[in-house]
Give the backbone structure.
Amino acid sequence: DTGVSQDPRHKITKRGQNVTFRCDPISEHNRLYWYRQTLGQGPEFLTYFQNEAQLEKSRLLSDRFSAERPKGSFSTLEIQRTEQGDSAMYLCASSKTSGDYNEQFFGPGTRLTVL
Amino acid sequence: AQTVTQSQPEMSVQEAETVTLSCTYDTSENNYYLFWYKQPPSRQMILVIRQEAYKQQNATENRFSVNFQKAAKSFSLKISDSQLGDTAMYFCAFMSKDSARQLTFGSGTQLTVLP
């Protein structure tokens, strides 16, 4: 399977702990996006990378959220000092940048539960 | 900033019948794309259909078609000959051609196809 993969699929943590999620995009895709989806809502954009450069991060929810894509391949999203309000599905998507339009392909998501 | 509104949280349709999901959006931009995404239960989001704002002709993909009314900022999805596998959450989404290419989603419509 050469789709977008995310790990772990589920994470349960206690309030105040740090968590890190990983996303592996489709191999030839140089854009990578992170979204958050809370129950009953559509995904909400958080940040995106083109290769290793983080080109938009103003939509990250607080300074407890950070993302990296060190070699332009996989990406990590870290949440420090988790709060119960961080419980959500975290989705990753990737796309090419050639041409006028490039479809974003989504991964299965990481479901975070903060107790 | 763009907003996307889906006013039908839930809908149901009998197998083989036709159903229309509604979506309205608000933007001051002229160059953009509109999408319908499908998110089956516990599975990842997939693209159903895409419409470019400058094209007057409504997009179609097999049993799926849209009614794009640019002046009214309306973008509805029609599913013909509904199948049990169409049961899913459907999200309407907006993407500016001039920005970071992130998607702005509506809150979704849960469609259930009844046997």
